[in-house]
Amino acid sequence: MSEEQKMQKRESAIPENEVFVGKKPAMNYVLAVVTQFNNGANSVKVRARGNAISRAVDVAEISRNRFVQDVKVGQISIGSEELANEDGTKSKVSSIEITLER
Amino acid sequence: MSEEQKMQKRESAIPENEVFVGKKPAMNYVLAVVTQFNNGANSVKVRARGNAISRAVDVAEISRNRFVQDVKVGQISIGSEELANEDGTKSKVSSIEITLER
What we know:
The structure is a homodimer. The first copy, chain A, is of the alpha+beta class. The first copy, chain A, has a single domain (about 5-100), classed as Alba-like domain (Translation Initiation Factor IF3, 2-Layer Sandwich), CATH 3.30.110.20. In chain A, about 40% of the residues lie in helices and about 35% in strands. The first copy, chain A, has helices at about 5-10, 25-40, 50-65, and strands at about 20, 45-50, 70-85, 90-100. In chain A, α2 crosses α3 (about 50-65). The radius of gyration of chain A is 14 Å and the shape is elongated.
């Protein structure tokens, strides 16, 4: 299974009010965040792992400053997750979860 | 002035108990964090901008999990900074500040 497929499989299991930031341009995820708030969500969690962490911060900042200006940054947490590589070894990767709330 | 020189100029102005994460390998900054705690600091701020944000999270996680295990993640804040480009235009860049504390 390719990285892309894995990512899609993962994204399909994500509950509402969460946006999992990956490798696409930040504006794609900003759109997802803004849509959820426009659909009545009171909080949206922006999550990412590894190199996408920087993009997740961009997504939170762009959403908040440009599109949904009544929204504030709430809890931010960081952590480490262990991922299994295709060859069976494991690697640790950092993660972030940014809660945006009305 | 090159990017490298700008970065150095910036780093020289950084107060104690702060580590500004840039483009070097994460372990360089982990060493700086661990050294500050070993020198008696009770809290160290790990800061970064743009793409280095992911690395700053790595630095915080590696320091905490592997080297200074009595240290916890405290306040995490994100923001946007405006930087002047060399041609006079301005760009916005996201930033993060992670406080590690005993």
